[in-house]
Amino acid sequence: MAAIALKFTSTDVTVVDITKSRIVAWYNDQIPIYQPVNTTTKTSGLGVGKAGDLTYWDSAA
């Protein structure tokens, strides 16, 4: 999201999060960017062990 906001200045970027403090941080100088090193994978269902764990994406929907 940060790269999109930086490169496409004519595009509106909407920040959505379950934590209000993270949303507020996007409008300050301390952008809350979290870049995981070891991305977790699914532990059950289709794609187990291979597909990315999208638990937090699903909870934001």
Structural notes for this entry:
The chain has 61 residues and is mainly α. It is built from three helices and no strands. The longest helix has 6 residues. It is elongated, with a radius of gyration of 15 Å. The two termini are 16 Å apart. The model has no long low-confidence stretch (mean pLDDT 76).
Features:
61 residues; mainly alpha
Order of helices and strands: HHH
Oligomer: single chain
Q: Write down the overall mean pLDDT.
A: 76
Shape: elongated
Count of folded domains = 1
Largest sheet: none
Q: Strand tally, please? A: 0
Relative strand content:
under 5%
Could you list the spans in which at least 5 consecutive residues all have pLDDT below 50?
none
End-to-end Cα distance, whole Å, is 16 Å
Rg, alpha carbons? 15 Å
Helix content: 25-40%
Q: Report the structural category.
A: mainly alpha
Number of helices: 3
Summarize the structure.
The protein has helices at residues 2-7, 20-25, 55-60. With 61 residues, it is mostly helical.
Question: SSE layout and pairings?
Answer:
Blueprint: H1 2-7, H2 20-25, H3 55-60
